[in-house]
Design a protein that fits this description.
Layout: H1 8-31, H2 35-48, H3 55-58, H4 68-78, H5 85-94, H6 99-115, H7 118-124, H8 131-143, H9 150-158, H10 168-176, H11 182-194, H12 198-205, H13 210-224, H14 226-232, H15 240-259
Length: 260
């Protein structure tokens, strides 16, 4: 009988791989919560959503439960108007990179913006948290006396056809600082027209030079009431922008009629 021995390096590699599989399987099995833990977590989470510390006694045996960090986050978010920055920072330090930590940061930043507590807001703010918080961050800087730079601060937001209400003070400041030129306004109006955002166009019309305001309002009307816009189009001046509004109204009316 012949025994073929595997080379030592190959045998050791397979042994290490098999060991890692067994260890991983053991850890997964150990971490798998049982029915009683799942029931306890559900009860503790319901209590945490009511705020306060009542959830802690219900979660006494859940320290190793995979979703344990969600309990404290739920309680803190319920009490968001009462908690302070130190409490939030302690949670963020304990659970960095966790989804509930990101949720708590966003919730507390929104609360700080509501309070207009801009110094604490800027201390906790991170870029990439969405348009609302981006605009609140710019508001915070404006409150501290900073001026806006269009390319650095506004351009990315300006390229979007619709923005949350939190951006209104930022756009107003950009206008007051003379950053919203006629060309920039029309660029945003054109994007809004393509996206069907009549409200955005109407809100920008007043910032245009007086001779151009009516053309912008005609574009908004073409989006809101294409039949009404076409009925009045014969009275509009024969300009490129007014022809654009008439064409837009005709296109939208044709689409409505074809789908009805």
């Amino acid at each position: 009988m012949f025994v073929v021995a595997l080379p030592r390096r190959i045998s050791l590699s397979w042994l290490l791989l098999a060991t890692s599989w067994l260890l991983a399987a053991t850890l997964v099995q150990a971490a798998e919560p049982d029915a009683s833990q799942r029931a306890a977590f559900k009860q503790a989470y319901a209590a945490a959503q009511q705020g306060g510390d009542g959830w802690q006694s219900l979660a006494a045996g859940l320290r190793d439960y995979p979703l344990y960090p969600y309990l404290q986050e739920a309680a803190l978010e319920h009490d968001i108007q009462q908690i302070d920055r130190a409490t939030v920072e302690a949670y963020l330090a304990q659970y960095p990179d966790w989804i509930p930590a990101a949720d708590l940061r966003r919730a507390f930043l929104l609360e700080l913006a509501r309070r207009q507590d801009w110094n604490n807001f800027l201390a906790l703010y991170q870029p990439g948290l969405g348009d609302t918080l981006s605009c609140h961050a710019l508001q915070a800087r404006l409150a501290n006396g900073s001026a806006l730079d269009f390319d650095k601060d506004v351009a990315t937001l300006w390229a979007k056809p619709n923005l949350p209400d939190a951006c209104d003070p930022v756009l107003n400041a950009a206008h007051d600082q003379g950053l919203l030129t006629s060309a920039r306004l029309w660029t945003r109006i054109d994007r809004a027209a393509d996206a069907g955002q009549a409200g955005t166009i109407a809100s920008l019309a007043d910032w245009l030079p007086p001779a151009e305001q009516a053309s912008a309002r005609q574009l908004a009307l073409a989006l809101r009431d294409p039949a009404g816009a076409l009925a009045n189009a014969s009275t509009w001046p024969d300009t490129l922008r007014d022809r654009q509004a008439a064409t837009l109204a005709l296109t939208r009316l044709a689409r409505r009629q074809s789908s009805s």
